[in-house]
Design a protein that fits this description.
The chain is α+β, with helices and mostly antiparallel strands and 169 residues long. It has six helices and eight strands; from the N terminus they run E-E-E-H-H-H-H-H-E-E-E-E-E-H. Strands 2, 3, 5, 6, 7 and 8 form a six-stranded antiparallel β-sheet that branches. The two termini are 35 Å apart.
């Protein structure tokens, strides 16, 4: 998979982030999960369980190989950045997950997309702690592949580095 900019890509100002609390940011474009994606993820993580990489066996058991749950989770940055660009932001840091559930299997060949909503924006040092509710939807499936509450630290453009006390709070 290569990073891309979706058709509904929009730009917002760093200072306007808090005005988006409670708003759904929409959906990314659909992205197909390929066997090559699954194999690369297996190589990167060392998770070569047969349900992911043994195509004939997985196809017999599940109808197609199963994408790693953590591969699905790892799509969040790419899909999110394809939807929204924050102007005036120097950088962002993944701060963690307060909740994450894998609620459905993604098979190789299926397409997924991100739906996200900003739940909270709290000042943190010279930046913001941003909390989003996200789901990775599977095309033609009622249940999403995953639902999560994700946290990011976002910092405005400046000349200084991120103070260590901002990250450790």
């Amino acid at each position: 998979m290569k990073p891309f900019r979706g058709a509904e890509h929009r730009q917002i100002s760093f200072s306007e982030l808090s005005s988006l609390v409670g708003q759904e940011l929409g959906c990314s474009e659909w992205v197909e999960i390929t066997q090559a994606d699954v194999d690369k993820f297996a190589d990167a993580t060392g998770d070569h369980e047969w349900i992911h990489v043994d195509v004939p066996r997985a196809t017999k058991a599940f109808g197609a190989p199963v994408a790693h749950g953590y591969l699905t989770l790892a799509l969040l940055p790419m899909l999110s950045q394809s939807m929204i660009e924050t102007i005036g932001m120097r950088n962002g840091l993944n701060y963690g997950l307060d909740r994450c559930r894998f609620t459905n299997i993604v098979h190789v060949g299926q397409r997924v997309r991100l739906r996200q909503m900003i739940v909270d924006v709290t000042p943190r040092g010279d930046g913001f702690l941003v909390v989003k509710d996200v789901s990775i939807e599977i095309e033609n499936e009622k249940r999403p592949a995953l639902v999560a509450e994700v946290l990011f630290l976002l910092f405005p453009e400046s000349d200084g580095d991120v103070p260590a006390e901002v990250i450790s709070k």
